[in-house]
Amino acid sequence: MSASPSIRRIGILTGGGDCPGLNAVLRAVTKTAIFQHRIEVFGIEDGLLGLVDDRVRALTARDVSGILTRGGTILGSNNRCNPRRHHVGHDEKGEPIFADVTDRCLATISRHKLDALIVIGGDGTMSAASHLVQRGINVIGVPKTIDNDLVGTEITFGFLTAVDTATDALDRLHSTADSHHRVMVCELMGRNAGWIALSAGVASGSDVILIPEIPFELDVIAAFVDKRMKSGPGFAIVAVAEGATPRGGSQRVVRHDPTSPDPVRLGGIGHWIATEIESRCSVETRTTVLGHIQRGGAPIAADRVLATYFGYMAIQALVDGKKARMIVRQNNEFGDMDLLEVANRQRRVPVDHLLIAAARALGTSFGDTAPHPTVSRTAVVV
Ligand code: F6P
Hints:
The protein is an alpha/beta fold. The protein has ten helices and 15 strands. The chain starts with 8 loop residues before the first strand and ends in a 21-residue tail after the last helix.
């Protein structure tokens, strides 16, 4: 097949926090572009930072051969770069100084004669990329994040592997909790969305699942745990999303980085809940913070397949003449949506999600007192 007349050279980057499947997308995009359309592919290093600094290298089919199964990204990534507000230093008081370096990105794109960019990222990267769209650059987005919180797509690649990793951790905590008659609290990632905690919590049969979308009450959790300890199996597993909050309270923040486009890093809720359970229920309680283990390692088969679809579809969108779109999956079908609609928005778990209703029916506590929510039958996680 021949190259689309207007698309001869493309740039590709992986932005934001890394996740399993990035390399699988890079492989799918590069091989489809070269083999099917004779489009040249250029890898941009460390996400949008590589555009700012002009770190761009040609990618051949050989470069992406054998990377399907590898975690991380051969291009490197960065979750601190927004060219519109780029951190360039500090003033004499130590306050960060920012500058708009979009023109440097445009110069890099023009220097390498790139006809379009394929941007693999989450909402932060898509937001930053949308400014390039407004400056006339054609960008096709590929939805990435373990958090699964991008609007417009029912799934992002990386999520299923993170759920698998979290489920494995919760399974392991189960057996040690049982042996020692303890409560085990496991803090999981996800930012402001509870998709990982909900899915892994259900998959592992966790007793309590706490997600940001359902504010919890410590009294409810303590009563539930107490009952399990005294008249149940004598141990309990609590899967808590890093963004979960007590009713009327606020999220716990582990660090704040004013130089990052998304300055808040959540964390600490697991330890706090464990301390509260221990003192309220007089039961030995331990905490595991799974952290970046959820982002590392090889993608599971389902994510390799999803990443391959997404990469292939991104090139299809380009050769079909599409502009400023993000590839999505909805109702198990692949399509695309306006990239500008994705920027700065997050898809959270609906509280009437079918999986929440199913878990409640099985006796799982969400730390709240709402027993019979209306159930949406259309929302499915995986
Ligand atoms: O968005 C992915 C994610 O792993 C979140 O789940 C988590 O809150 C955040 O990134 C952690 O970011 P960092 O790698 O900067 O600590």
